[in-house]
Structures are given as C-alpha cells and as structure tokens.
Batch of 2 targets.
Target 1
Amino acid sequence: MQEIITLTGIDPELEIQTSKVTSSVRELLQKHLNILYPLKSTIKQYATIITGHEIAEQTRLSLPDLLKQFPVKDAKMFEEVIKILTAQAPRLYSVSSAPGSHGVNEIHITVSKDEFYVEDEKRTGVSSEYFSTKPVGTEFEFFIQKQKHFRLPTEDKDVIMIGPGTGIAPFRSFIAERDAQAASGRNWLFFGEQHFVTDFLYQTELQDYLQTGALANLDVAFSRDQKEKVYVQHRMKEKGAELYEWLQNGAYMYISGKREPTSKDVEKMLVDIFKEHGNKSEEEAEKYLHQLVEEGRWEKDVY
Ligand SMILES: Cc1cc2nc3c(=O)[nH]c(=O)nc-3n(C[C@H](O)[C@H](O)[C@H](O)COP(=O)(O)OP(=O)(O)OC[C@H]3O[C@@H](n4cnc5c(N)ncnc54)[C@H](O)[C@@H]3O)c2cc1C
C-alpha cells in the first residue's frame, strides 16, 4: 500500500466514494479494493479512459506494477483509478471442523499458502499470505456460505472421500462428525500430497481414526517421494475392486480440492474402474458415473 502512495503522491487520508464504499484512500487500498490482481477490464479502463497509455489487451499486472510501467500523471488522476478498481473478492475455505467433535464455538479451516511466480519473482496469494503471517489471536471478518449438496448421507451409509491437498478439509470435518455420531456406515479416505514427511496433513489424527475404526480405510499417495509420480487416482485403481463393491453397496462418494488436474483424472480413473470391475463398456461406465451423480452419490467441491 505504501508503495502505491509513494508512486502516486496521493494523500492516504483523502476520502473517496467508490461504487460500494466511501472511505479513506488508506482503508480502500488496505481492505476493500482489488489492488493485487486487477481484472483485465479494469486495466482496459485504466489504459483507455484514464491514463491514455497503450497497454496490450492480455496484460494483467498488480496495481503497483501497473503504476510503475504505465504511470498516472498525478494524484488527481489516481483518484479516478481508485474509482474503477473492483472490490476485493472474498476467498472461500472449506470448514475442516465438526460441531459434534470440536464444539459449536470453533470453526477450523485448512489453508495452503498460494505461491506463484510473476516474471521470476516469487509472489504469494493475498488471503493465504494474510493467514500465514498473522499472529494467533488476530481477529478478522468472515461469513458462512452454506453448501446444499456436499453433505453427509444418513449415518448408516458408507462414505468414500477423495481429498488431495487442502481437499482434505471437508473430509476432516466429515470424519470427525461421523466419529461423534458413532455412525454405523464405513468411512474411506484417499489423501494425496507431494511429500510424506512435510505434507501429510492431519497424519496423527487420521492414524488415530484408523485405529479406532472411525476410518475403515486410509489410502495415501505422495507424488514426489519416488521416481514415478503417484497420485490418489493410482491408489483408487489399486483398490478398484473394493471401491466398486462399496459403490454397489450404496456408498456415497465425494471429491474435494483443486479442479485441475485432480478432479478430471479421478473421473477418468473411475470410468476405468467401472469398466474393469463392473464389466462395463466405456459408455456403460460413463452412464454408471452419471447415475451416481443423479442419485447424489458423487459430489464434487472443487476449485
Ligand atoms: C468452494 C471453495 C473451497 C475452497 N477451499 C479451500 C480450502 O479448504 N483450503 C485452501 O487452501 N483453499 C481453498 N480454496 C481456494 C481459496 O479460496 C483461495 O482461492 C486460495 O487460498 C488462494 O487465495 P489467495 O488470496 O491466497 O490468492 P490470490 O491472491 O487470490 O491469487 C490466486 C491466484 O491468482 C493469480 N495471481 C494473483 N495475483 C497475481 C499477479 N499479480 N500476477 C499474476 N497472477 C496472479 C495466481 O495464479 C494465484 O495463484 C477454496 C476455493 C473454493 C472456491
């Protein structure tokens, strides 16, 4: 934020009215506006309506980078820029706790730090960086977004959960809730990450669940611990016969985590499993998967 103020010479205490909120420049930049990754449409407006710079259509830069490469004339011009910035979008996180197990006054989330490169410079995502740097006790605003479909079935049904990476979050909640309910249905978790030593999220908790029987099966894949990359879908293939049997028995199956590449690869593998263990053609296997969706027995929460 300080960088933006220095680059533009704007008074940080100046009150500005944007489409959603009226506040000081400091507050707007700190809390309300999307300054780290403005939309392409915002950059287009910045170029054509306000500054007159020629900026290639595909360009997406953080506001500080934009101001460095395509400067505003003065603080007054930057006031206009502030008015076209869109609001900071909320980030969604799956709840990874369960009231029955962790109490009604706690909500846990499982956040992975988003790191990426912009022209060889390492950057971090706004929200995940925020969580990783704030001390215990920091207060922040949040809201709850209800999920209509991604829910546990009745306690007697078996549940298969595929949760690579932070995809484990809702399943930590599911398993804890089923444990608290002493559910008679069985629970099976597939978890995947890069390295066993550093990335096995909730390892001891899951091992305890395995011991107590709250988890009937736990299959893990650590992709970078050996030469050959091994992912959750490979573990599913190894257990294909059992997995198909659970589904034939009425199990509910869920996947959570990154959409690409996991979710697509898992669906491909499921079709292969149905072909092999259900003795089905490609078309029949796809139909079987579709039928699971129709019955609410194949639910996805991917991002
Ligand atoms: C339903 C749902 C559930 C989710 N559950 C979880 C969960 O349980 N745990 C979890 O960790 N996450 C979860 N997510 C993802 C989470 O909401 C955030 O998207 C994630 O934490 C990244 O947010 P961020 O603010 O850290 O990154 P952002 O700042 O939003 O950046 C996101 C991406 O934008 C790009 N980017 C940003 N700035 C620039 C730039 N200047 N130049 C180039 N590229 C840029 C990068 O590709 C970066 O990876 C979930 C998402 C959804 C929709």
Target 2
Amino acid sequence: MDNTVTMPGADLTAIFDRMSAIGARPGEGVTRLAASAEDGTARAFFATWMAQGGARIVQDAVGNQFACFDWAGEGSPWIFAGSHLDTQPRGGRFDGTLGVLAAGCAALDLDAEVRAGRTRPTHNLAVVNWTNEEGARYQPSLTGSSVFSGALPLADALALVDGAGIPLGDALAAIGVDGKTGHIPPRPEAYVELHVEQGRTLTEANRRIGVIEGTWAARKMTVTWIGRAAHTGPTPMVDRRDALLAAAQGIAAFEAIIAANHPHLHRSAARLVVEPNSPNVVVERATVWFELRGLDVAELDRAGDAVLAAFSTAAACTGTRLEIAADALRPPAGMASHLMAVVGETARSCGFEPLIMRSVAGHDAVALQNSGIPSALIFIPSVGGVAHHPDELTHPEDVQAGLAVLTAVLRRLVQGGFHAA
Ligand SMILES: [Zn+2]
C-alpha cells in the first residue's frame, strides 16, 4: 500500500466506499476470501488508514490485525472493537467490513476527543480485524478470534487447508503475515462488535438497534459417502457404488426428516465436493457439509442423530460406505449481561429504543464471549434480511445509528464505565 495515499479519516461513508471496491466485480458483489490477494489488499488499506489516524498497527501470528490507541499507557487494560474484512465468494459489502470500519471511525473520533482533553481514558483501545471469520475458504470459521481467545491452537489454525490444499499458514505468508507478532495487546476487558443483522427481525420490529443476548446453537456435520470409481458406460448397473447417488438420497432425507419433525430448525446442505468429478466416472467420493441451527441443544442432538441414521440408510441403499469427517456442536452463547445493559442504556441515550434479540449466525464476538472475554454484539438492520449476496444493503440512516451507538459505548468503556447506571 502506498503510504502517501491520503485516507478519508473518520468519514465512514468515504472509507466504506473505498474498501468496498477491493475485490469487487460488476454484478458479482465483493470477493475477499481469507488470506487471498484481495484480503491482503484490504488489510494493507485498513492498516494504512488507521496508521494515518495515529494508531500503532500490529498483527499476530494468525494475521489478526490490531490498530492500537495506547491512550492509557503500558500496563493499562484494553477494550477491543472490530469485526472481519474477509467475505464470502460473491458476498456483500456490509458483512464484517462495516463493523471494522465503524470501529475505526469511532476510534478516530475518540482519539480527537482524547487529544482535546474531553475524554480521559483509563483503558487503551484496539480496532481489530479478525482473520477468516467467514470460513468460506478455510473451515472452521471464526479462526482468528478463536486463536486469540485460546479456543483453537495456533498450529492447528495454520495447518488448515483450503480446497486446493494450500495451508492457511502458507496463504497468510503470501500476503505478508510473517509470524512475527510485535507488541500484541493482551486479552481485553471487553470486546464490542457492530454487525448487520442478516435477517429481518429488526425491520419487522421497526427498530434500528439490536442488542444481542445470545446466539442459537449449531450442529455442523461433514459427511462423505465412499463408493467405487467406474466407467459410466459399460459398468453393469448392479456393480455400481455411486457416492453421488448416496449423497443425493442423504440430502433429501435430511430435509424430509427435519421438515417433518423439527420444522423450526434452520438447516442447509450447502457444499458438495464430488470426486473424481468427471462426467464419465461413477462418483467415488461425495462429501456434503450439513448444518442444523436452533436454540435447544438437546433437540439438535436428537435431530442430528436422526439424520445420521438416514445417512447410513443412504449408504446401505447404494452400496457405499459412510464416513463422518466432522460432527461438531457449537453451543448457544449468552452474551455478557453487564455489557448488554451498557449498550441498551447507551442506545436509548442516543435516541434509539433497542431490541433485545438473538443472533442465528456465529460472529467473532460469540467466539470471544465463549472463551471468557466479555463481549457485546450490536445489530443494525439488513434490508430484506439479504446476506452473503451482492444485494446486501443497510440504509445510511441505520449505519449512522450503529456508528453513533458504537462510538458512545466505546467512549464509556474506555473510561471504565462497564456498568449501566
Ligand atoms: Zn460477518
């Protein structure tokens, strides 16, 4: 990044427009997969912007970026605010990016107040860009925040491979994450994340600000049916062991079982890898990524076990073998109640009656909260609930409402105001 380029300062619209151009293609939204060249450009842009605003920039060994404002000095406690700059393939502009850039603008505004003596921090502030929140290129998602909070060992994260077999560590090295960690801030006393809702709850309730009390649980299963490669022409039908046929039966059974018995669970089979993926070879391996999301862990246990039984049946019917590559439960998180109270009270003082709500999706704030870092998650509306799509949109008035609340919350937290009045 050319450090002589002048950045827009604390103008969220201007910085958001500039960031939105990185990885954008006409009609195809934004593609900044984690640790890709586009991600590298976005990181450099973010670092240059924050450095021009006076921040000290450091990154850790998994590539999390910290733009540090050392207002209270060495040894003082920290507040973090941020989100992620990586996107889904052909993703929207707002998911994650808005949270990082809004936190950056809030920090720059507060920095001006600190310099003018109007705000007197007892805490330092870091604006954070967490690596690979999306989990599009590397699974699991929430990688950077999970490494920082200690839930995922660094070596395991760096060894994750993408669909082309490239380890995350190598991909990060290629965009300048060299493992040298610098002076990384310690675990913060609070983390605050502003994010778009990606659903329609706020719009339907006619509210601008959501205060997240917790998340749904998720059960994520990766299953492979293993058959036998064979010529699609001469091989007698009776001899075929078709893994794709098994996967198709498995997907259909999954939907039928959940729709009949647990219709309120959100579910998907959203990724399919077929090997060897030739029109003339009966499929030898078909791997499907399944997700079930709901509030009740016991129900996810029962529902997941029922579909696993159906997957075995699909294997038996097709003469294939079933392998469960992953079957992980993400428990429902409860967000930090003292921070919820602060956010709710601050939102009201900014003129917005907040909606207390749950998040269906996981976010970095949830990963941190689950590992013992008190975290707050603030939602603003998504038009039509559209997410992970180029049409993702949040109206400017809602963006400004979110920025105002985030800034006021951080102003309070950096001065030690952790509890509502
Ligand atoms: Zn996100």
